[in-house]
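Ticket #4471: structure output looks truncated?

Reporter: J.K.
Steps to reproduce: submitted the chain below (413 residues) through the standard prediction queue, then opened the result file.
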Amino acid sequence: MLIRFSVANFKSFKDQTSLYMVAGRTTRHSGHLVEINGQRILKGSYLFGANASGKSNLIEAVAFARDIVANGLEEADCDGKYFRIDDQYKTSPGVFQFDFLSNNRFYSYGFAISYDSATVVEEWLYETGSEETCIFLRQKAENGQSYRMESEFGESIANERFHVYMSDFRSMKLSRVLFLSDVSSRAPDDDIAFRAFKDTSQWFSKLSIISPAAAIRNAPRLVCGKGMDWTGLLDCFDTGIDGVSIRNIKDRSLLGGRIAIDHGNPNDLFSFRDESEGTKRLFELIPIYYVCRKGAVVFVDEIDRSLHPNLTNEFIKHYYQMSDGIPCQLIATAHDSSLINLDVLRQDEIWFVDRKPDHSSTLFSLNRYKIRSEWSLEEDYLIGRYGGVPVFSPIPQIEPDQDEEDAGRGLAA
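Returned output as attached by the reporter:
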């Protein structure tokens, strides 16, 4: 489970910004958290804010860091990822840090990269908890041509193989490779000395991101997967679907993705492309229920996209019901202000993203405010009491000319 995610110098996030998943003192919705090793950890967080405030950039930061862990900097697109409003940030490092729980142990892992050269500037892994132990610390040497590697493990735990790995990474030849990824792939699975590396890599492997542009290329596999009650869940959300199945791709009437959907006439099935945008979105979201039951951490950008407000509320309510007692997390951005309701969410689950005068993004929790139960949080949010809403200016007067009149006729056509 995620405890904290911090990012600095990535797109609109100029200074270090952190999302915390540690539960506050409120007792409302106790099923929205789990307690592990004395830590009360939230199972959900929901980010609200105006368009262009930076909500999507936070999700993109997580995805960017995860992909670097999985594929290395060789595959990463670093172009324009820094805070572009201030030129000095082009040469400043981008920093990403994850504090998390994996296999009942707390860790803190992060790295800093140079966007300009697409290389690792610094990387670290600590086991945290009652005491903090440095698994490794990788830093640029003073000469800038090599790395300095440190570890508190010593010979008693980190055997000769570990020191060989560290020695390899003192060279700048591996400047685009994360030490975590390299050791995780090379170290024996049964060697306890490398448990922290395996735990960290396993945690990242369970990190899922769903964006508005996410394709459902794996939908046919999911429809055929065991335990996936598509028909029951789609019926639960009042989609008018009586059945979902897979048909042969040679059936030209189903070239929209091989998914065959029964809307009441089994002799004339619909394809995926025939469905409404809301139903298509449900095909993307419903698998969340299943991956979360396996302990995944899922980030969703615009979870309410194309969905009725009541359906969004119902989807989130079912998430907590279906994952009751399971250590998993759903972290999502949304515009649906009806979710800003203490009957739906805990106060510490509600976050706001706002754009500051220098065009950078700031992130803060509703927990910073004193809230009374009789207040309408949605109304207070919409009038700007908590920030994170658009501030409009008067529209300028437009005097039509011939070109604009031609354009207007084009729109009418």
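Triage note (M.O.): checked the attachment and the full token line is present. The CA atoms of residues 95 and 112 lie 4 Å apart.
Status: closed, working as intended.
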